Amino acid sequence: MVVGILVEISHQNVDKIFDYHVPDILVPEIKVGIRVEVPFGRQTLEGFVLEIKDRSDCDNLRDVIRIVDNDIVLNEELLSLGKRMHEELLSTLISCYQVMLPKALKARRGVNVSKKYDVFYRINRNFDCKTNATQQKIIDLFKDNELISRSDLVKISSSSLKTLLKNGVLIEEKHEHYRMQYTFGDSSKKELTKDQENAFLSVDLNSYSTYLLHGVTGSGKTEVYIKLIEKVLSMGKTAIVLVPEISLTPQMVNRFSGVFGNKIAALHSALSDGEKYDEWRRIHRGEVSIVIGARSACFAPLTNLGIIIIDEEHSDSYKQDNNPRYDARRIAMIRGETWNCPVVLGSATPLLEDYARACKGVYKLFELPNRVNGDVLPKVSIIDMNEEIKRSINHFSLPFIEKIRETLDYGNQAILLLNRRGYSSFVTCKNCGTTLKCPYCDISLTYHKSSNNLRCHYCGYGTRLPKICPECMEDGLSTMGVGTEKIEEELSSLFSSARVLRMDVDTTTRKGSHARMIEAFKNHEYDILLGTQMVAKGLDFPNVTLVGVINADTSLNIPDFRSSENTFSLLSQVAGRSGRGAKKGEVLIQTYNPEHYAIYYAKSHDYVGFYKKEMAIRRELKYPPYFYICYLRISGRDYKYLSIEANKIRKTLDRYLSSTVILGPSPASIFRINNVYRYGIILKYKKEDNLYKILSKLIDHYRGDSKITLDIDFNPNHF
After folding, report:
1. What is the assigned CATH class of domain 116-177?
2. Does the bond joining 369 to the residue before it have cis omega, within 30 degrees of 0?
């Protein structure tokens, strides 16, 4: 027997199937999709069995060393999906398979994740040996118990226990247990509104189609999801629910566990390697029917899929930032087509491309235009900081301060958004004008007061804040700009009695921190929740009556074609956190660009108005959905060589791509990261038959060039 093995090396030069001979002793255990260990050059590697055949065209085949897992790790569907990703994304095949699996099922390389067991004892009713009084007391415990755990026998004489085991009186059993423990949340069933009922009844659960559920914040999209999944489970099928942020997972798991009990599993980056391994095996073994998680949960090895739901589908977190640069929305549609089941996209602010497809009838559109229980959307007020700056206190306008104080006086809660972490954006010298930058990146260092550190948020470099300017050697360093850490300090100064909770990347590093913070705020242990964009989506706190955006221009000023869309979405989403209970809500937005259309339409909760305005601009500038976008990133440490090769690539593209708009090469928005220089080329196209062929040839050409890395990103989130 011969097998085709894909070894676990993510490199273009070895991204192919290698033939190996299977020793007779291993033949009965060999299956497509399992992991094996094989010799490769002078080393031993793990790999996946992709083919089984009788013979090979190669001579002197080397033997498979051993089988790593007896169980199939990659089933037929996932193997096919990986090949399709490989073709569509131009990524290595092994990277497409590796991204599907928890770390415990990838090549070990120092990672050791073990299974956890509980030890139990069972009495051998047929034992025939003498026992002493102490041993008899142990035996008597089994009169009313078939199994007793080791933990329940800790006070028992260990020597007596060992003797009973040795003599065969007791039998030891090991039962595997999972590391994840769930608490079951709200089990109440809520009656659907007419709009919700219409959306639920209109989804055909017996065929593949993509549905867009466009519902305002607080319109009850989650209840529609629950109703659909109940129906799917009654049909004997399974479901995947994707959420964009780790912070949303606890709330979603809590709500779903209340309805569906232990039928759910969770998959997201906040889990330990062991927990991910356990959850994956529960799914793989068919012990659960529903998987809830972030982006990677789209690969959950469920079979007989009946529905895939993508909540807050507009989020850019569904797109992987490194290779393979997959989009979970695209993966969901491929799997939906495979299992002939619907894919439901839900959002108050859908991606423009998806809403355009829905308007054209490519997707089926359903609207939830009203909040449940007749609750009204919050009033949104714009504060022009150009006028307020002279009488503002720190970074808060007077109306902003007055409204926060009023909210606290009434015993209500507030959510404040600033999409920038740290204490200050940069540190500069008042004497010579020097800005302290990362030595490895073309970016200023961010000051974090709590640690008195300067950090680069791109490469991770950190250093202590110097006492004097390293350039002019004078005492003139000053912090500029603002981050969540500084705002937290200012809030404590302005509202000394208020309990402020800061939620950003720096405060949520500990395991379970997201869930603990959300629960604490929900229980009114804090009055003000201050955070970055992780507080803008999906959170539901009935006592929040005020939402404030400290600087709406943070995302607006990013040089990217999606900046207006991202700003509108962020403002609309965070505004939707206000007034979700019986109390009316209000939203304040501080901005230096009050006339910008993204802010104007966010104020009036007018998605359609924004959509029409932005679409006109996209059409004029040839951006999605009117054109497809592909971004080529050419990177390397040798600046001169990189520049030459980037221009060569441009000439090649000009020669072979006849109907594509080509921009660049130009330096990336951050030209240097971790001492690696980066150029970008943007391709805009509607139909280009040669595109994949030419890009594949470019990849092949640069495989052996150690000085250049060519990275290709289809439909990028940003450049």
Report:
1. mainly alpha
2. no
